[in-house]
Structures are given as C-alpha cells and as structure tokens.
Design goal:
The protein is mainly alpha-helical and about 190 residues long. It contains eight helices and five strands. The chain folds into two domains: about 5-90, Arc Repressor Mutant, subunit A (Orthogonal Bundle), CATH 1.10.10; about 100-175, no CATH class. Helix content is about 55%, strand content about 10%. Helix 4 crosses helix 5 and helix 6 packs antiparallel against helix 8 (about 160-175). The longest helix is centred in the middle third of the chain and has 25 residues, at about 95-120.
Length: about 190
Amino acid sequence: MGPRLQRCCWLSMFYEDSFVKISGIIGGEEYVRVARALLNNEGATDEEIASATGLKINVVRRILYDLYGRSLITGIRVRDPKRGWMVYRWRAERDQVDSYIEAQKKKILERLRNRLEYEKAHEFYYCGTPGDPKLPLEEAIEYYYSCPRCGNVLSLVSNKDLIEALEAKIAEIEKEWGAPGRSSGT
C-alpha cells in the first residue's frame, strides 16, 4: 500500500462513524464492512448484510453475534413474509459505543492495577538468557535457583522500571478521567 493510499484510508477512518471505528478495532476490515452495511440498511437481515458486503453468510453471522454479545447491536426476531420462517433484523446501537469504550477502559485500568500489585508484591529471578522466563521467588526456590529452561543460575532482577511504567500509565489514565482511581462514569 503506497503512502497516498495509506493517507486516504487513515483519513476515511478519521471521518468514520464511531460505531464503525470501534467495530474495526474489535475485528478489522470484515467488521468495518458489516458495521457500514448496518448503518446503511437499518433492520437488515444477515443475508442482506452478506449480500451488501460480499462476505460469506457464516462470517457475517459470526461478526453479528460478536457485536451483539458486546451490546453494540440489537437483533429483533421477526417472521420473513416471503419465506415464512423466523429471521433476525439487526440494528446498530450507536449510543452504546461510549459506554462500551468506558467499560473497556475500566477493564484495562483494573488489569494494570492488578499487575502493579503483583509486581510490587514479588521478587523476581532471571538467568539472563533471552526468551527465558522471569520467575517469582517462590518458583526460583522450587528450581533451586536454576533456570528450568537452560539450567543457568537465577539471579535477582529489579522490576523497578516496570513498576514505574505501570504507575505512570495508571496515573495517565486516571488524569484523563479527571478523578484519581475512578472513571468519569462512576
């Protein structure tokens, strides 16, 4: 992809609807195509969306169920007048995008806090071999301070830099929300 095409794609995402943007973040280009089809044809069936996007019906259904599970779309079960059987008519829930983003931010913040707590509560040992694991004290003792992968001696390593990075990221998120330790939604 050339620089002109990359700029064009970036600009189109810049002006894109937030529902389409979040769909793209969740699942990529196929999700974007389904999201755009939903916005262009509110109340579309999975078959209509598949036809509009050129995607296989099973791919469209997988995407619809994923978006439905995240409460970003709703499905209403109705009887198809032509065939007589029950089908779902899908609709984008654009007003749910902001609450979805807030919920994801809360999950990320909670994971960062848990990791910070874990890093502060443990000493770690490492053999120095790239790709080998950093082990907490309890595991290092189990292996008699010998790396379970390569057999080298495990030495105490500082996790000060990681702790500082986690604290900085947590502070940045809390500052963005405007209240220490809390999101603006709570």
